[in-house]
Amino acid sequence: QVQLVESGGGLVQAGGSLRLSCAASRNILSFSFMGWYRQAPGDQRELVATITTGGSTTYSDSVEGRFTASRDNAKNTIYLQMNSLKPEDTAVYYCNAKMFYTIPPSDYWGQGTQVTVSS
Hints:
By secondary structure, the protein is an all-beta fold. Helices cover 0% and strands 52% of the residues. It is built from no helices and eleven strands. The protein has strands at 4-7, 10-13, 18-24, 33-39, 46-51, 57-59, 67-72, 77-82, 91-99, 106-109, 113-118. The strands form two sheets. Strands 2, 4, 5, 6, 9, 10 and 11 form a seven-stranded mixed beta sheet that branches. A four-stranded antiparallel beta sheet has the order 1-3-8-7, with no helix packed on it. Strand 7 and strand 8 (77-82) form a beta hairpin. The radius of gyration is 14 Å and the shape is globular. 29% of the residues are buried.
């Protein structure tokens, strides 16, 4: 069973920064997809950032230019650097990993880490 463990959340003032980490229990190069989602109270879970095995990234419009996803394959860890944080970034942030080549496809989630941005 794959485990994803997030860390790095907390309380920060608007304009501040946080770096989230997601440590996997297996080689992250085995995942077809890795990404960060977030969910605020009463909202649907939304995709914030993705990162490929080659390190290419995509971002939602709401975080583009402020958040940066990265990975350290040797540590089996991905990161989300969050700068210029806004109160609307307040949410539980989840790490997600998928394997498309398994039958059925595999889908793993971390337990989530709370990010709270005060105004």
